[in-house]
Amino acid sequence: MGMTLFFKFTGAAMPVAIFTTLGVEPWGRYLTGAAELVCVVLLLSPRMVPLGALLALAVMGGAIGSHLTVLGISLEGIKDNLPEGSEELVADPSLFAFAWITVLCAAIVLVIHRDQLLGMIRRGPSDP
C-alpha cells in the first residue's frame, strides 16, 4: 500500500483515471490514500499492528470490489478517463494482484498477532 501513496497524493494519471471512473475524484483518491497511510503507520507501530492489518483488509476489500464491479481486473473500465497516449497502461492486472497479495499478507499478520488482537478486544476501548 505504501508504494502507491505517492501516486495517489500527487495526482498521477492512473489513480486519477481510476477514481474518475469510480466517480469519486479527487476526494475518494485522497481519502483512500489517507486510509492507506494510516494502515502503513499502524502496521509499523508494534502495539497497533492488528488494527493496521484489519484496516488493510477493509481498504483492499474495497479495492478488490471496485476491480470486480467497475474497473475490471486489467483496468479495462478506465480507458475513457486516461490521458491521450497512455492506453497501454490498461492491460495490466498488477494492481488487482497487489490488492490480493496485500489481503493475504494482512490475513497472515492477523494470524501471527491474533493473541494481541484478542487482548485488544477483551480490554475494550476504555482500558489502557
Q: Main sheet?
A: none
Total domain count: 1
Which term fits the overall shape?
elongated
Low-confidence stretches: none
Helical amount: 55-70%
H/E order of the elements? HHHHHH
List keywords for this structure.
128 residues, 70% helix, 0% strand
Question: What does the model show?
Answer:
This protein is an all-alpha fold and 128 residues long. The chain has one domain. The chain is 70% helix and 0% strand. The chain has 6 helices and no strands. It has helices spanning 2-10, 13-22, 27-44, 49-71, 94-112, 114-123. The chain is elongated and about 55 Å long. It starts with a helix and ends in a 5-residue tail after the last helix. The mean pLDDT is 92.
Write the layout of secondary structure elements.
Elements: H1 2-10, H2 13-22, H3 27-44, H4 49-71, H5 94-112, H6 114-123
Summarize the structure.
This protein has 128 residues and is mostly helical. It has helices spanning 2-10, 13-22, 27-44, 49-71, 94-112, 114-123.
